[in-house]
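User: I'm curious whether this sequence folds into something compact or stays loose and floppy. Could you predict its structure so I can see for myself?
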Amino acid sequence: MKHDKITHEQCSVHRMPGGRQSLHEKYGLWICRGGGGCSGPKEKIQPRYFEFYSISHLYQGHGWYWRQPNIVEKMQPGHGILIAPGFIHDYGGDKDSYTEDSLCFTGSVADQLFRCGIIRNGIFEMGSARRLLPVAKLAADPSADSQIQANLALQNLLVKLYLENKAKKRGEREPAVRRLIEELKATPEKWWTVEEMASFCNLSTAQFRRVFQAATGQSPKNYLDSMKVQMATTLLCSTEETVAELAASLGYLDPFHFSRRFKQLTGFAPADYRHEARHGHKENTSQSPGLTIL
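Assistant: Here's the prediction. I'll summarize afterward.
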């Protein structure tokens, strides 16, 4: 079903419950509802929004999550969803039950966590352990001590989940860079643009530049250039190709440009490098362009 430009007036709304204590106002955080349950499959998208923050942990079953503009994502056991106040969304069971633990909360502390990116709308990894239950148990006790402990436990959990997912994403990106470098080596005749490399890694151009620099210590263009020259040092020693043929096989349209770049990085003209290597005076004269880091 298509839902374009849904407004708040077109949505159902989950209202803020009553029962806030003065302690919650002073602290800046209130867990206003905790629990969970099991719902059956949900076939129809019903746009809605909450007046509070919500975290749901799908620990059994399968689900879907919808957000504007008509994007639907699948959910597996171990996924969580964070929703901020006013965010239009929906989720439910995907041809299966949706069994969850959940917490609803509000306050200035939650607003700060949202502003700094620790709370973000959408799906994240939460694992199989039912990590919301201890917080919900503390929040169910109305005593001041338990309310303070519940707030601290929720804050610690939100920060921990944020850091875990950040580390996981970083770990996923580095293998993508490794796969890209394998592809660069398999297509030495091609001059990849930064945009093409970013697309291969499923990253934005800005993200890709940062991730690639962190993984290799070089910019994408410098790495590609250095890789081609490193390949050329091997070909000069192991083949009878002319410098022009070798340059063409590495994507250089102008062999003179290739020779200039080769000398800049190795200190030798290609022909001189071949002569020195074959006469045993120098086994490897390249200036180690740093291609062994991955």
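Summary: Residues 170-216 form one domain. DSSP finds ten helices and eight strands in the chain.
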